[in-house]
Each structure stands twice: as structure tokens, then as C-alpha cells.
Amino acid sequence: MNNRQKTGLAIIIAGLLVIAAIIYFIFMRPVEQLEPIAPVDVPSGQLPGEPEESDLTPGNTPRRNTYDLSSETPHETNATDVAKLASIIAERLGSFSNQSNYSNFEDLNIFMTTTMRDWAKTYVEKMRTDNPYEGNYYGISTFSVNTSVKSFDNNNGNAEVVVGTLRRETKVDGSESEFNQDLRLVFVKEGDRWLVDGAYWLK
User: Fold this and answer.
1) What is the rounded distance in angstroms from the CA atom of residue 31 to the CA atom of residue 28?
2) Positions of the region Disordered (predicted)?
3) pTM here?
4) Given Cys at both, which of 2, 86, 134, 198 links 161, Cβ 3.0 to 4.6 Å?
């Protein structure tokens, strides 16, 4: 056997040894067994680590504050509340358009007395007749600026509030104008609710 053959044979043997080592470490080496973890037996309805009985004595048991709503004094609507209501009503009552078919008045029905609802119904019918929507928009946007309580009598159930407003009118020809106008609102108390019984735009 010449040197070339000896060298080739040595290379083959070395390759076989490497392959054998790889096979041994991957497939034949025993795997270290891990000890199984013992399952934790948790009683039903109890969180892990939670003692079955509290180890707190009555003296160091934390107090839980409870709030009794029945002890709270019921809030009685006052002049400030009526003024806020007047501000909201003024904006809604003074903002309307022929495109929305003057539905804002109907949205306010729950805040009106029967007399006021009857007036609003008649007024809306007139507005729909005088300014029907035929593709040309007409509307007014109203914003409350300030309120002034002129009178408030909770015992007799009547109040009067004047709301200062800023109004923006858009006419059918597209022209716009802006002006200030006060709205006087008359309220009456029915049960525990304050309702609008009259609305008057002041010049």
C-alpha cells in the first residue's frame, strides 16, 4: 500500500469516527431525567397561599368602610340648577333649520308643560309652512352666553330666567348675520321637575 492509499484510508477512518461521535451524542447519550414536580393540591374556592382561616385578630382586622346611600340628603333643585337648565333649553330652542324640519322643538317636549307643548306644536306648523325645505337651507344657531335668574320660588314652584344668547342666521339666499338676543324663560315646578311654561325672545 503506497502513501496515497494510506492517507486516503486515514481520512476515511477519521470521518467515520466523527460520524460515530455525532450519532452517539445526538441519539445514544442517556438523557438526564428531571424529577417530576409534585402537583399542588388547591382546595376548591380557595386561592393558592390563602389561609383557610384568617390569622388576624379582631383588633388588627382592617376595617371596611361602607357608605350608606340612604343617609345621603337628597339634592333639591335650586336656582343654579334651573339656570343651567335654562341655558341648555335656550340653545336648543333657538337653534333650528328647515332642513331638520324644526325637530328641535319636539326634542324639548319632555322639558315643557302641556301649555308650552301646545304652543310649540302650533309654532312648528307655522314655521314649516312659512319656510319649507325646497333645497335652499334656512337656519339659526344659538349659543348661550350668560344667564340671569330673575326669580326663584321653590315653595310656590315658579321661576324666571333670562338667557343672553349669540345667534347666527343663515338665510335661503346664503347670506349670514350674527346678533345678540335675550330669551326669557318661565318655569313651573310639577312634582319634582322644573318645566318650561313660556319662552319669549326679547328685542
Assistant:
1) 9
2) 42-76
3) 0.61
4) 86
